[in-house]
Amino acid sequence: MRRARDEVQEPASPVSPTAPLTRTEETAEVPGALPESLAGYVSYLLRRVHAQFSATPDGTDADSRDFLVLDALTGQDWASQLDLAERLGINRTIMVQVIDRLEARGEVQRTRNPDNRRQYVLSLTDRGRTALGSMRRAVAQRDAHLTAALTREETARLDELLARLLPESAQPLVQGTEYLVAQAHFRLRRHGDDKLTGTGLRVRHYGPLSALVASGPCSQQRLAEFLAITGPAASQLVDELVKQGLVRRGRDAHDRRRYALEVTDDGREKLAVITAAVHELAHDVAAMLGPGGEDELRALLLKLLEAAENPDGRSGGHSEGQSGGNSGSDLSVNTKSTVPARG
């Protein structure tokens, strides 16, 4: 299946909390030791697992959104295209494109709703049922590959916990571990960023700001290594923070050819705002998962990530830092967070 990260590919303002992520952001994560200051957060681990799943070769050209829509239409017509988009967490404009594509292939029939002429009733055709059968087999095979590190019982428990992170109305519509991971990730990302609406900030700004506050000035390359993200993604993050006056680029005292990033006074104040949002998001996640669910989900996500980092079965664990000419920084993967590590 085409990877679920394609769910959000529209251009977006870099500081709009509710805007979809750009492709640079969605493909940001790279293999690397998890920052200890972030590894306790379920929402962060979920983002890493989503990136891990998205990086796996597809194996088929079928579109992930096509599968979600066709699967949702199994056994029932849908009276509102907009309602289905909202239930599946698909952008309205993208949903129109999906239905257009499925209708052109003869897999979905779209007719006017007799009770509301402004709405379309969506129905699955015989051709759509045939296509869905093939997609389901492909999804099952891909899920088996992606969750190979888990037992059958652990995979079932993972799916159960992930479903709790979705709106109750959407839970019956999203099947398969990969899609549960994607939709839970998208929902928590939106939920966290909604808490920062109007500030120009996003929850993902917590990582770089907290790291720079804890360890002091460092190079952009060093920050990227610490966060285990690509250079372009780190550059985009830093540009956002510099534009808002939260981070400044100064010269590295140890190497005048390099810039050293450091947090401004305003950045320290705004970090407190983001920290509050991170705490609220962690509290919400714990409430959604119920007693013990947070620890269970964290352990399962870490197991998936460890398996990906150590495909030969060697023991994982946090590294003691990265090597390479990035003088002027003692930033390491064991940098402590200013917030207790949880959800």
Question: Can you put this structure into words, describing what you see?
Answer:
The protein is mostly helical. 50% of the residues lie in helices and 9% in strands. It is built from 13 helices and 4 strands. A two-stranded antiparallel ribbon has the order 1-2. The longest helix has 25 residues, at 265-289. The chain is globular. The two termini are 29 Å apart. Mean pLDDT is 80; it is low at 1-19, 314-330 and 332-343.
Give the helices and strands, then pairings.
Layout: H1 23-26, H2 42-54, H3 64-72, H4 81-88, H5 92-104, E1 108-113, E2 116-124, H6 126-146, H7 152-164, H8 177-194, H9 206-215, H10 220-227, H11 231-243, E3 247-252, E4 255-263, H12 265-289, H13 293-309
Antiparallel strand pairs: 1-2, 3-4
Pick out its properties.
mainly alpha; 343 residues; two-stranded antiparallel sheet; 13 helices; single chain; two-stranded antiparallel ribbon
Distance between the termini: 29 Å
Number of strands: 4
Task: Give the SSE order as H and E letters.
Answer: HHHHHEEHHHHHHEEHH
Average pLDDT works out at 80
Query: The biggest beta sheet, please?
Result: 2 strands, antiparallel
Structural class: mainly alpha
| Oligomerization | single chain
Residue stretches low in confidence (pLDDT < 50, at least 5 long) are 1-19, 314-330, 332-343
